[in-house]
Design goal:
single chain, alpha/beta, TIM Barrel, two-stranded antiparallel ribbon, globular, binds iron/sulfur cluster
């Protein structure tokens, strides 16, 4: 019987690999077209200097060294785990295809690496990159994580995502066509978004060939444009109860076959301005599970009250 009333990442990995699977966050030394001047220099309004990869290993180390370091950190806790190399920081398909091939293959050549997960933008998946990913997926497990954040085009412009929904749809379909599972990254609590907007984003995902979802609370990080909005009072972060209520509704609305990769998110403590309650992650998850039980909510049972 499933541990939670939703399809959790642990359950998915256990079914796939038969044991605990841990991700090692890597920094491949890439940049992002939304920051290097190709699309803009400001980036998304919430993006930190680490390019949304504040927990990734050190980019001055090789990929092999980063993996070795990541494994050493987790081996005590999970001695028999297998690992996914997670290219997390910045845009991990934004480089000449031969550079990408070298980085991905270096990761896959390390012992106990069972696959790679690549976080990227939906507008950075040209034909050459798709060919490479398709080729790798014939030899190993490959997942691609695409930043959607919201299906509301006005919010997407406000946060400077830099591409319309149409591009996300096309990329998700192209990846699905070459049998690569797509994980949609969604942010809850974006400026001016209502419950209806967030549920519309879930509906948008439900209509696409999406394998997994990351639901991430919007964090206000120091030295970002979002931080300036927050400090001026123009952005008010979600309270814990509000966030948990939104999560309950999103889980209830989500297609039952979509794997839930994340329900909270980690803000780097050293630069997190708000909401500070988000640091109490265990407490939030316990409270969420209690609310799901009390309200008898299961993933995909949107007929419930
Ligand atoms: S796409 Fe990612 S790395 Fe680029 S600016 Fe936005 S959050 Fe930062």
């Amino acid at each position: 019987m499933a541990q939670y009333p939703y399809l959790s990442l642990n359950e998915y990995y256990r079914n796939l690999f038969g044991r605990k699977t841990a991700k090692i966050s890597l920094d491949g030394g890439f940049t992002c077209p939304n920051r290097d001047g190709t699309l803009s220099t400001g980036g998304c309004i919430f993006c930190s200097a680490g390019g949304s990869g504040d927990f990734a290993e050190d980019a001055t180390l090789s990929i092999a060294q980063q993996i070795e370091k990541g494994k050493a950190q987790t081996q005590k806790k999970w001695p028999n785990a297998c690992y996914i190399a997670y290219f997390q920081a910045f845009t991990n398909t934004y480089a000449p295809v031969e550079v990408l091939r070298q980085k991905y293959e270096e990761a896959l050549a390390q012992p106990e690496i069972s696959g790679i997960s690549i976080a990227t933008r939906a507008d950075c998946l040209g034909a050459d990159v798709l060919n490479l990913l398709g080729e790798l997926s014939l030899k190993t497990k490959v997942w691609v994580e695409l930043g959607l954040q919201t299906a509301n085009e006005d919010t997407a412009s406000f946060i400077r995502r830099g591409y319309p929904n149409k591009i996300f749809i096309e990329s998700a379909q192209r990846l699905h066509h070459i049998h690569i599972p797509v994980i949609a990254h969604v942010i809850l609590g974006l400026p001016n978004e209502t419950m209806e907007d967030m549920l519309n984003t879930i509906d948008f995902i439900n209509r696409l060939p999406i394998h997994g979802i990351k639901l991430q609370l919007l964090h206000v990080l120091a030295h970002t444009d979002l931080a300036a909005l927050y400090e001026s009072g123009a952005y008010i972060p979600l309270e814990q109860e509000e966030y948990l209520e939104i999560l309950c509704r999103c889980i209830q609305r989500l297609r039952p076959d979509i794997v839930i990769y994340r329900l909270t998110g980690d803000g780097d403590k050293s630069i997190l301005l708000a909401p500070l309650w988000s640091l109490r992650k265990r407490e939030s998850l316990n409270r969420l599970h209690q609310m799901l039980r009390e309200k008898k909510i299961q993933q995909g049972n949107s007929d419930c009250p």
